[in-house]
Amino acid sequence: MHRIGACWKQVGKRPEFLYMLRDFEGRMTKRPALLENGVSLAYDVIGSLSQPVVMPILGITDNMTDWPDKLCEPFVAAGFCVVRHESRDMGWSTQMDGAQYSMEHIVADTLALMDQLNITAAHFIGYSFGGAIAQLLALTDPARAHRLVLLQSTNYNLSLPARSPAVLAAMNGACHPYATTSEAVAAIKAVRLACNGSTHAMSDAEAQSSAERSVARAYCPSGTARMIAARQRTAPFFERLSAITCPTLVLQGSDDPIFPRGHGEDIAQRIPGAKLQYLQGAGHNHPESLVPQLLESMLGFLLNDLGPAPP
Asked: Would you say the pTM of this structure is higher than 0.85?
């Protein structure tokens, strides 16, 4: 059996299992963008870059399989272009072995990718940790952010409610290397199930399938640990959020065990004009039952509420 170590995404060292589900997403590519800082980011473009760009920024442990085609195609059909990418230490992007960095470095990577693709500004959908990155990006370079959707996210205000012990234990399990593929899949599956809501919940089979797709692309426990350290190394920024000027939608899962009620509310109270919407019965994942509501909320915000984006 293959040993699951720091990450199976290593150039010239990819075991065969990495490809066993390579066709599950027909449009997913291996395109790397080599940035001036030496970091290579895997990215994918769905649609035409001549259209307004939507950029999902994903959470810790996530790779492109966690923002699948079903969360991209409706945006393209609505006239957007979706650019999804994997942050440093995630997926097929550079593993930062031995490096110390902060969330600001991840922001800088994202802006550098936009520069390479000649994207002047974008709508950002920041999920979980990625929502905090989106907030920092809007603070760092406001002109690059047209609108923010902050999905099941936080501003890391330490006074806010803590995550549940069960989900914390599951997340810790995803920071360890495993001897076999099946053990790595089990660790990611445990996170999926621990993130369930009361109404919108992944079944055992759905969580298993999601975990298999994720691990088939890449399992990066050392990268996950470095991402957590990057968050801990970043200076608090929640008191600066009043400087964000772009329209913002905050989507808070009512049963979120990672960022419980209070996190979305705090973000919305601090960003001028932000809209807060509850995802009733939702936790911190995206089961099939939740996808229609997510798409309706996000597309409604980008299209109906504010009209077409500026060119």
From this structure: yes
288: exposed, middle or buried (Cβ count in 10 Å: 0-12, 13-18, 19+): exposed
Contacts with 42 (C-beta within 8 Å, 6 or more apart), sequence order: 30, 31, 32, 64, 85, 86, 91, 92, 93
Fold category of 16-305 in CATH = Rossmann fold (3.40.50)
């395109």: which residue's tokens?
31
pLDDT on residue 175: 93
Strand ranges (E), 128-274: 145-151, 248-253
- Running DSSP on this structure, what letter comes out for residue 243? G
Per DSSP, the residues of 56-81 read EE--TT--GGGS-GGGTHHHHHTT-E
Q: Each residue of 85-118: pLDDT tens digit?
A: 999 999 999 999 999 999 999 999 999 999 999 9
Whether the predicted pLDDT of 234 surpasses 60: yes
How far apart are alpha carbons 145 and 133 in whole angstroms? 12
CA-closest candidate to residue 40, choices 2, 82, 96, 80: 96
Per-residue tokens: 44: 């994918």
What is d(CA 217, CA 221) in angstroms, rounded to the nearest whole number?
A: 13
pLDDT confidence bin for 23, thresholds 50/70/90: very low
Backbone angles phi, psi at 166, to 5 degrees: -65, -45
Contacts of 38 (CB under 8 A, 6+ apart): 94
Give the DSSP per-residue string, 210-240.
HHHHHHHH---HHHHHHHHHHHHHSPP-GGG
Looking at the DSSP assignment, which residues form a beta bridge with residue 293?
none
- The alpha carbon of residue 196 and the mean position of all alpha carbons in its chain are separated, in whole angstroms, by 17
The one-character DSSP state at 242 is: G
For the chain, domain boundaries = 16-305
* Distance in angstroms (rounded) separating the CA atoms of residues 178 and 182: 9
